[in-house]
Predict the structure.
Amino acid sequence: MRILLVEDDLLLADGIRTALQRMNYQTEHCTRGSELVAALKTSEFGAVVLDLGLADGSSLPLIEQLRRAGQTVPVLVLTALDDIDIELKALNAGAGDYLSKPFDLRELEVRLRVLARRHQDRTDDELNVAGIRLNLVNQRCWFAGRDVTLTNREYILLKEFMQHPDKIRSRQLLEELCYGWDGDIDSNATEVHIHNLRKKFGSSFVKTVRGVGYMLVSRHD
Amino acid sequence: MIDSIKTRIVLGVNLVILLVLVIASVVDYYRSLHEIDEVFDAQLAQTSRLLARLVENDPGLPDRLSPLIVAVPQLEQQLMEVPSALERLREGHKYESQIGFQVRSRDGRLLLSSANTSHTLLAPLQSGYFERSDPDHQWISFSLFDEASQLWLQAGQHVAVRDELSWYLVSGQIGQVLVTMLLLSVLIYLLVQHMFAPVDALSQQLQQSSPTALQPLDIALPTEIAPVQRAINTLLDNISQHLAQEKRFIADASHELRTPLAILRLHAQNISQANNDADRKKALDAIISSSMRMSHLVSQLMALARVDRQQLTHFSPVQLLQLTEETLAQLPSAQLDKVDWQLEIDPALYVRGDPSLLQVVWRNLLDNASKYAPADSCVQVRASRSQQQITCVFENYSHLVLQPDKQRLTDRFYRSPGHQQIDGAGLGLSIVKQIISLHQASMQISQLEDMVAVTLHFDSA
């Protein structure tokens, strides 16, 4: 799952980003509300972490603006104010959840996972598609009755495919998921990862859509 | 002492009225007594003259060997007070025993006497009024010598009769005074109660206010006390503003401390979970920066709290050049070396102010100028005198356009969105503004193209 972090405090943003990356969440960072809108237009994100105290005061109107534009991406709001009114306002504007500073990293991760689970209409954190089981809490995977060991990037790609079965995931999206905005777009590393996944789950597990991207096929007729 | 104004007024007014009534009664009493004396004295004289005319027709009287006694009925004194009509008896009046008359020969031999005076000498053989006592009574009498009959004619009266009458007068007055006093006291008490009703309402409403319920008072008060209510309302207003300020300060402080705390916690967790040295080093650096930011924030907060509470300042002349140079010397050397400083300050320029507070102002403004200016640009500090004012300008380059949020720069914790990457708590200008207003000076922030200037105007010392 790819996360977009909107935070104008660089030290805080850096800490969150490092932590989420370590937990296999590709995280992009921007400092302004306007950058958030632009990023959502060009890339797909699993969740947005938005600081309510952006210096330009744009946070609350921003959520409303996103919802009016039909953006359904879950938004987790970070707030430094111990003020229930503000938190309720954020939730009413369309935020999915909020977290008060200072917070524990584990709580941030759990809340993001729960937001995604709710967004994808699931009741637990285990994906089960095409005979593959993937646990999102401990990041373990089973296939054909045995444990499968995954690298971090393989895990990120597999999770993306399993969360969107039978839907085309573009090359660009997959590349950004693995390497972020700053990654080397020209490399064919993503293809290498998909090749490795096919070796582990069978060659027909992910179908190549020429010129567009890849798609997980949940049922083989 | 009596503490209640109401009691003081009631007692005071009553005492004054009592005094006036007593004086009036005493004056009245003596005037009545005088009138009574005049009437009775005239009566005594008339009785003597009437007696003279009567005894003229009795030529044998001077030759009598024993005096002729005129009987006086001995009537019982009733113990109870009865109406005058009941005392008027057919036999006469009980008071007859208290008045008497005598006729004496030229040499003083008693010729005629009322029965109750037959054994006493009413008056000496001399014309005029006399007061004298016999063992039983004190008499006041009039003595007249008739040349035609060569006889002394004397009429007398018990002094007690007059005393009795005066006693009636006194007791009558006392009764009147007491009744009047009682009635007046009640009326005065009611009147004072009525007049003090608004004051009672005022104190009642004041007792009901508490720091959590500081409602302004709105009682219809007489003009004498209305200013008190206005003063109290002003005070209440000040107090609630002060409380709101404190509340906002605490909320702001806790809000501002949360972000650095979050940074500390995040990076600490990152250290414990990092799997390479580079990540650990990065997190460690972030913790150090964040704790420095926190200590700066705390010291700025303390400065702000101190300035907020400061009312009286010890003003003395402060030399602007010295102030600027001393403050510059306190800046961290990295900041000092970042820009070129250009000072244009006449050593003869002084402002009146609190030296340590002014140093806080200078420190914040110089700090800001070097912090927000591009490296190696020029920061100017100028001071000049014009008529009654001394103007100080702190000017630096800035690529950022401040125009839209210039007004908010002095708000607490406000930081321009373009400055978020530069360390700061957003309190400096707020502190400066507070200190400047304590000095009755003014501050303006202006921007002309890419030059930002903070201008201070002081009244010249």
Remarks:
- The CA atoms of residues 354 and 423 of chain B lie 28 Å apart.
- The interface with chain A takes residues 251, 254-256, 258-259, 261-267, 269-270, 273-275, 279, 282-283, 286, 289-290, 293, 415-417, 420-421 of chain B (CB under 8 Å).
- Chain B has a mean pLDDT of 85.
